[in-house]
Specification:
With about 220 residues, the protein is α+β, with helices and mostly antiparallel strands. It contains two helices and nine strands. It folds into two domains: about 5-95, Immunoglobulins (Immunoglobulin-like, Sandwich); about 100-165. The longest helix is centred in the middle third of the chain and has 84 residues, at about 100-180. This is FNDC9 protein. InterPro entries: FN3_dom (IPR003961), FN3_sf (IPR036116), Ig-like_fold (IPR013783).
Length: about 220
């Protein structure tokens, strides 16, 4: 297939091959593996670490994410079978170039920043939810305390009202009982409460049937 490896760097390499008109598959398989041992006599597909598939209309492919200063074996085949030795090439990657190292550092810094931002947002969301939940619980507890206080005040007022009504009923019953037992006392009390009746003379009748006027002294109440 006339496979050649060009433009080798520390992380990339370009593999070029000749198109085969007899290829019945719709794609080419590009397989590569690092730290290849030249003593291997066969090339089983399962032993390759990576495999890429490209359409048969193409005759080149850029392999990326290679390890610097590493020996690779790369094979290109149009059959879904194990490649042969004439379909493979061995090459060594170069040292890491400064531009690639700078890009790697930028990607690493960007990944760390994104991870930190996501963690910060998660922590902020958790704290906000916790504060909101605590605030709602305190409001609910305060509302329950106010309800209990209102119910307690209403119960005390109701108890006082019932006690006052009971006392009033008891006093009224006592007054009714007293009126039933001593009707003369109630009439006397009525007379005493009338100030105009205190100044009039009262005729006292003795055993000798003589009427003697007696003046009743009333104290002002």
């Amino acid at each position: 297939m006339g496979i050649t490896i060009q433009n080798i760097t520390g992380n990339t390499a370009v593999v070029i091959w000749q198109k085969m008109a007899s290829c019945v598959d719709s794609f080419y398989s590009i397989m590569y593996h690092p730290n290849w041992n030249s003593m291997l006599s066969s090339f089983p597909r399962k032993s390759f670490q990576k495999e890429e598939r490209v359409p048969t209309s193409r005759s080149s492919f850029v392999v990326e994410n290679l390890t610097p200063l590493t020996r690779y074996i790369m094979c290109v085949t149009c059959q879904s079978a194990n490649p042969s030795s004439d379909q493979c090439r061995v090459f060594n990657t170069l040292e890491r170039d400064p531009a690639s190292a700078s890009n790697t550092k930028k990607e690493l810094a960007l990944g760390i920043w994104l991870t930190s931002s996501i963690l910060f947002l998660i922590i902020a969301a958790i704290l906000f939810y916790g504060c909101l939940h605590l605030l709602c619980r305190r409001r609910r507890e305060r509302s329950q305390e106010q309800d209990r206080s209102s119910k307690q005040d209403y119960g005390e007022a109701w108890t006082k009202s019932v006690a006052y009504t009971s006392e009033f009923s008891r006093q009224r019953q006592q007054m009714q009982d007293t009126e039933e037992k001593h009707p003369g006392d109630i009439q006397l009390a009525t007379v005493i409460e009338n100030p105009s009746a205190c100044n009039e003379p009262v005729m006292s009748t003795s055993k000798s049937q003589e009427r003697v006027p007696v003046t009743l002294q009333c104290s002002a109440i």
